[in-house]
Amino acid sequence: METNLAIDISDLHISFGEQHILNGVNLSVKKGENLVVLGRSGSGKSVLIKIIAGLLKPDSGKVITLGKDMNTINEKDLRLLRQKIGFSFQNSALYDSMTIYDNIAFPLLRNAKKYTKAELDKAIIGALDAVGLAQTAQQMPAELSGGQRKRIGIARTLILNPELMLYDEPTAGLDPITCIEINNLIVELQQRFNSSAIIITHDLTCAKTTGHRIAVLLDGKFIREGSFESVFATDEPLVKQFYEYNFIN
Amino acid sequence: MRRNSIMEKKNRKYVFTKKLDAFFIGLLDASRFVGLYFKEVFRGPFEFTEFKKQCYMMGIKSLPLITLTGLVTGIVFTKQSRPSLQELGAVSWLPSLIAIALIRALAPLITSLISAGKIGSNIGAQLGSMRVTEQIDAMNVSGVNAFKYLVVTRVSASTVMIPILMMYFAFIGLIGSFINVYLGENTSFVSYFQEAFSPISFLDVLTGLFKSIAYGLTIGLVGSYKGYNASRGTEGVGIAANQAVVISMFLIFVEEIIIVQISGWIRLAQF
Questions:
Q1: Which of A2, A241, B103, B190 is packed most tightly, with the most Cβ within 10 A?
Q2: Cα A173 off chain centre by
Q3: Which residues of A touch B10 (CB under 8 A)?
Q4: pTM here?
């Protein structure tokens, strides 16, 4: 079924033990749109994108990712779908026993057609170039800084030309200059590949720079949604606190 | 979809008690894991490069430890057995006694206990660390079958390598025993090994091999299960590695008792 939506979620519920994490979440992301999800730690933001990527299964509710129903999708189709999804993990999640080159080659060698060495080199250097780190190809992840690892994590997802990018706290723990670089990279990649993205963050500069739309998650539900300016034009204490902490303090 | 694990389903009333329920749920979860291994191992494509790498890591890298332990076991067991046999005037039985003990029991058991410590903990820690740093999720989310790449290759490698290590241990143990016998009785290498192998039957070799295959499978599966399902950060990695060793050893002893009992019945039926 052809649709203009990259993600369509309705009445999503998930809980772990006694703890209810998501309580009837409704959300949609258009193709080519960057949606920023804001929320307190433990509010279920990361859980939400893991459900979208099929890493977690919800208790109830409907999740349509790139046209596929995540409740009924089989293992084979899920694997094929995931090749269209790029997931940038909070701690980069680089394979620490492999070089940067092998990290980036890994999904390519296991997913796609047979590549010649020259084709593989071209694709990997291209992905590294896109994040400005072509010189690190033969280094190990442990030899890189946090910001570099984050960018390599993004390069690894780019190698499969994803239609949907999921960023989990892309600027967490990074210095302000590196944050700006990562924010610009997210915007640049979206423009270059016309992909959709969900960006989970606490960082309002990141939200303002990268997001076409902002959604605030509180107590397992989205309480506000809209442009950056409209979301923060409110007296809601938590939303105000977010704004004040980031821009006033 | 690891988190579909039934351990994490919630809001159920307890059937027995909280701990007992958790035990049975864990058991069911583990049997699903084992089932998934057997399903994936026979479904292509197989990750041969990773399998060969794991075989090298488990086999070749374990050789120094297995050599030392085998040699010491052979020497010490021979030295300790000699006085008792001397009292009975049966020192000439030493080679066959040592060979039977090594091939039927000592080689499979000691090799697998050493491997539970070395290989099992290694698998548990490696996969546990990959789980808590989200490397396994990263593999899955890039469309790679992480279970096949990480678990199937490791379990298959331990199932193949532990029987080979067991045979190597038995051989080195016999060499150690020969050294001790040679120093005591000046027996030749050929006559020692003729004596040693004369009472060994096909069933003995088969039982030893079967045991070590079962132990290899157990070590690989327990280490992988514990590592693959690790949680709670670095503490979880430690717990996974520790439990991989403890549970493997426990299961190896249980399997030893069962296999010895069954092979005993077969031996009785033969004669």
A1: B103
A2: 16
A3: 15-18
A4: 0.86
